[in-house]
Design goal:
heterodimer, A: 293 residues, alpha+beta, B: 797 residues, Aminopeptidase, six-stranded mixed β-sheet, elongated
Amino acid sequence: MALVSADTKIAELLTELHQLIKQTQEERSRSEHNLLNIQKTHERMQTENKTSPYYRTKLRGLYTTAKADAEAECSILRHALDKIAEIKSLLEERRIAAKMAGVYSDSDPPRKTMRRGVLMTLLQQSAMTLPLWIGKPGESPPPLCGAIPASSDYVAKQGDKVAARVKAVDGDEQWILAEVVSYSHSTNKYEVDDIDEEGKERHTLSRRRIIPLPQWKANPETDPEALFSKDQLVLALYPQTTCFYRALIHTPPHRPQDDYSVLFEDTSYADGYSPPLNVAQRYVVACKENKKK
Amino acid sequence: MADSAAQASMQPRLQQAQSGGAAGSNTNTGSGSGSSDPARPGLSQQQWASQKKAQVRAFPRAKKLEKLGVFSACKANDACKCNGWKNPHPPTATRMEPQQQAASLTEPCRSCNHTLAEHVSHLENVSEEEMNRLLGMVVDVENLFMSVHKEEDTDTKQVYFYLFKLLRKCILQMGKPVVEGSLGSPPFEKPNIEQGVLNFVQYKFSHLAPKERQTMYELSKMFLLCLNYWKLETPSQFRQRAQKDDASAYKVDYTRWLCYCHVPQSNDSLPRYETCQVFGRSLLKSIFTVTRRQLLEKFRVEKDKLPPEKRTLILTHFPKFLSMLEEEIYGENSPIWEADFTMPATEGAQLGHQTVLSPVAVSGSPLGKANAGTAMGCVSLDTVSSEVLTGEKRKLPEALTLEDAKRIRVMGDIPMELVNEVMMTITDPAAMLGPETSLLSANAARDETARLEERRGIIEFHVIGNSLSQKSNKKILMWLVGLQNVFSHQLPRMPKEYITRLVFDPKHKTLALIKDGRVIGGICFRMFPTQGFTEIVFCAVTSNEQVKGYGTHLMNHLKEYHIKHGILYFLTYADEYAIGYFKKQGFSKDIKVPKSRYLGYIKDYEGATLMECELNPRIPYTELSHIIKRQKEIIKKLIERKQSQIRKVYPGLTCFKEGVRQIPVESIPGIRETGWKPSSKEKGKDLKDPDLLYNMLKNLLAQIKTHPDAWPFMEPVKKSEAPDYYEIIRFPIDLKTMTERLKNRYYVTKKLFIADLQRIITNCREYNPPDSEYCKCANTLEKFFYFKLKESGLIDK
């Protein structure tokens, strides 16, 4: 029943989102008119070649309206973004619930595990649809936006993706992509699932072995300080795998949808680093300097 | 016998091809460079120029003199160096306006102060005709002047400027423009491109059935026409992708092309030549790869604008045609470029009316009695033959469609309409909206993404290898180095030197996977044709491109490559990490090839497992998972349909929980309602006596074979006649094969027999355009045999 109600809720939200998008367009056409007015006034002032008090007042009025229009449009857009976030979180809730219940939502006969290629596609898709953080003027990006780490007392929620340091069968330590199952406040330990279902392993790990992944992309155009900079040491998900490895930032992204280009530490190359490979913002986290080096 | 009629019928076809081609080249301009005019094959610019010329030539003489004066040296005295009269009162409106008052002959020149009359004195006794010729050059000079200014490419600009000066000089001296210098004069190479391409059609396709041969001929015409109007890439663009020596040769050709072919298209003062008639193989070599890509791209982009009959021609045959042509252009010793090329077989040597005639002759011959010796063109003959048929069994058409469905259903098969309907729903474009990734369900086939990427040109597959006898081209060598890198990175336990030795060994080949021009994976193999197997030597995909289905798609391509080359076994020594991969690709540890065949041939690796894969030449491997997915979808839809018709839910069976191991199928509640029939009952309906069935089928087959429209289906299609036939048609069948099958008592049920008959028809419709002669035959033959089947009681009436 819970699933059904989530469905109707999502349908409602989608309708609202649709409305909001239409409103945006209305708002936009309205401000268009005013912007045109401003432009015309400027032109007229230029031809008359003087700034009379009349124009000054007129322009001030026009600009005030334009600013209000822009703010109204902006607030609708933010509202729409909130709706999208809400839909995504409902979907996520549903996914977790289904996972808990051991139900496959897919109508096709269940496979024991997802094909790895499909898993990779899903991971890429989740990186692509990670929301971009859009702050109000003067607002600085919050923790878990881009390179900004979570606060020290932050506890990752159930279903959140994290980089988790686990002991592999051969005793080597490895950073893997995992999903949080629970957190115990009494022991300060996380329970996480390996994202790769083939692993089917559940790990219990202390806080320091967990690095939450960013929840927003940082916009390189407005918040470049929230990105890792060139030559910084990071942990990055090696393309087409579910493991994080140490890497140096080769080039940070230039546009919001761009990936980092990183050089993985790789002894099989003469200079000790792989050729530049692309990794999405979602899968690049700070590397806690480890002792051996 | 029907010469004129046949010729008449060919005419529109050719025109069609031409208009198709012209339309193609017209729109090409966009794809060339964004600059002013150039490849605009004329029309607009050419028309504009000729309009302007007509306008100028209609001027009164005084006005003409003024116009020519501008380009005429002052003859007042020897000292005056003025080379053109300049109007002292520059007119406000454009000079072209005829109403504008012509300047007076006494008007002084702005630069030398001598009168206009002194500039044009040499024109006094010149005929009107000559004046007009000179005026034409004036218009062309003005146009060239604009072109020089607008052109951004320096090489092109230089040539324009040269031509500009040349024409100016000609006006001054009242001469004829002749391009001088080291360019030589056309034709620049023999045989020319046109001859080469026509030779190619003869060389490769003269053995084809007339219909296909005609198709190829049309394609060649279209290709030549496109080429004549194609805008070549500039030498600087060429230099970026080619080697130095080639680039300087290309620059010469490019300049020739501008002077003799391209510019004269809109500038008729210069003598004009067709690209395909004055250039030969060397130019084609330089431009073919790029032009081919642009051509195909353009057709792909504009496929919706093409008329439907052209679309099939272009989209299905053109790429293949170009690939075959490519082999001849770059091939070492292709005969088509020999000056004295002649086709050994004279039959069909003359492409043209003869080829159109022959299908008539063939289709006519079975009808012989009616038509022998009568002069009937193919058009009229067509109607005659269909009339004969409908006359025989008038009620057939409407009766058939209804009966069709019923009959086949009885046989347990699904009516074609239903299948088509289902096909429509599963390929419904509305159902395919949304982001691509969401289409990939957890059950998407492993190679689905790779297949899509290949279709979109993101990845490419090439079989390459080193050669000691001929110089490999640079790109191939770069790719081989790339492969060696990928293999040595991904197979760290193999010594690098060993990998290098095998990848560069001329006996080994590698199927390379290319993305963004770089090698990201490959399978190195060695074919042993005498031993009937191929050894898989290395197989790898670079680590950051793994898990995308590339490995599977690579292996499927390799399988198809081997089917094409007639080798049906793969053998490989797989290490412990590779066994899983090879299993997924259909390899097994069960070796069927006798040891004697591979021992001593295949490289033996210690600690590795020998695995084998047997290929089935009837499986289209790269499409297999897609086909199966389709089939599943169809069946799912059919089940849904059936369910919605029956609408009854029975409680599940409980007997198995109670320990029952097996129950008769018919005792499952509701199963009969779905239309299921116990097999024994169905068998009862079949003919019990095998000999009776055999005789009936034999009789029937004999009747079908003598049907006038059965001629295309008498024997297996020859690969030499339709090179791509067996790539498109996976389950070929023909009346001769059916006769053999009948003799071998293969048709134990009528169902098998009818299925084969139906396949003849569906194959024909798949391979040929619907309005082709062949499909018409298929249509009539299909009606005929269903009629006969019904008549003989093999299917319900």
